[in-house]
Structure formats: C-alpha cells, structure tokens
Amino acid sequence: MENTAPSIPRTHHAPPRPKTDGAPASHPRALRLIQISDSHLFAHPEGRLLGLNTRRSFQAVLALALDGGTPADGLVMTGDLVQDETAEGYAYLARVLEDTGIPCFCIPGNHDRRDLMEEWLGAAAMGPIADNRIDGWNLIFLDSTLPGEDGGRLTRRQVHHMDTLLQRDPGPCLVFLHQHPLPIGSAWMDTMGVTNGAQLLAVCDRHPHLKAVICGHIHQEFSVSRGHYQILGTPSTCFQFLPASPDFALDARTPGYRELHLHPDGRLDTRVVRLAAYPEPLALDATGY
Ligand SMILES: [Fe+2]
Prior knowledge:
The protein is of the alpha/beta class.
C-alpha cells in the first residue's frame, strides 16, 4: 500500500494524564474501563488494511465504547496502535485520545515504535512495566514486545518487578500486555505469543487478588479461567482473526472492544461489545496482511 502522509503540525496533543495517586475509592459504582486493541492506524486518513480504512473502523469502535451510557473512567489500548509506525499516525492518535477527556493507558505491540509513542502520547505511553492505581484497583502494564519480532518475551526484571508489585499491594489487580501469554489453540498465532508466558502466569497463580491478565494481538475474543483469575483476549478495532484456525484466516465477526467493570469489592465483570456491521467491506479471502 502506498500512502502519502499528510502534513501535521508538530504540536504535541498529550492525552489526559493517567491518575496515579493512591486516593481512596470515591466511586460508589463500579469503575468502567474500556479496552481497545490493535487499531493499526496509518499516517494517511485513507490508510487501509485488507480493504478497511483503519481510522474509520477505530473511530466507530471508540464512539460505540464512549457512548455506553455510563461514562468511561479510563481507556486502555493494548498495542499495534500505528501500523506504519509514523509520527503522524501517533499524532493523530494523541489528538483522539485527548478528545476523550479520560485517562488513557497505552502499551506497544509488535506494530509500534516505542520512541514515537513516548514522544507523542506523553504520560499515556506506559513504560516497560508500569503500575497505576485507579481508585482501589491496580493496573499493571507490561511491554512484552521484542524489536523486529512478532512474538514477545518478558524480561526477568519485568517478571520479578510484577511479583514485587503484587506482593506489596493486596488490592484487586489487572495485568495488561500485548501478546498472549498462553496458547489460544490457533497454530499460526501460537508461534507468536509470549515465549515465557508460563513464567508470567506462575507469578499470577501466587496472588489471589489478581483478577485478570488481558492481552491484544490475537484479534479475537478469548476467555479462559485459571484458578482465581481470567486470561482475556479482545477483538481488534479493524479485522478479526478466525478462532481455532491452524493457518491465517479472517473472521467475518465485526470489530469491537472490551468492557471491564471494576467493582469496589474486587469483583470484575467483563464482556466484548462489537459493531453491528463493518463500516465498509473487508477482504475476507485475504491470505495475509
Ligand atoms: Fe494486531
């Protein structure tokens, strides 16, 4: 695909700064957190993947998520933010996130440039391991990406640091990362998960206040229970991969996002919400992208 990037003034539009204070819970209701993943945006407004304008699809999913009746308290983006890894793509995303007016937390995927994320998304770009409190809940963000690789890996330091964070604070906790930490039953996709995901899950197994490990990358809904917590995957805001397929295959299911309702007593309710239809036709017979 050839795109001519539009000229965007080099002005930073940093999204709202995530709340990082340790203030006591002030929400009598459950917190409403939105997870959006794998937007695969381009610098050019008409940038497309598999026939789909990824900005248009992202905007449609975000509008659906923000129009959920109850105001959203935060937005998590779990990687593959900008497909062509351009400053213009991140500048566009920064403006959109700023317009939401809510705290935003972004982690990189294998289709991202960490330096550009930090430059354009400011405080919304999470570091290699980041710990944020949103009312009584802790949100841990892990950068699982490896430069030049589709699969991911966590460093020993990240795994150890996460263990320390979980020991230190007994509050309910969610962990977010891009690649999936265990096989999802799709052979081609399972060649590019987190290679040492078992180490991550071994730490999670030891901390009963951990409620879920939540990934992007797999472009499909996924949910499995493992003892006291869930491992969750979420649709992309653009094209979807067919679950359980041994080879690359697209799914006709529509783009969507994940609702996460974080109750004051530590309960987590979650579900995936999808668009009623694709914003425009998708090349479903594609054999790659
Ligand atoms: Fe992706």
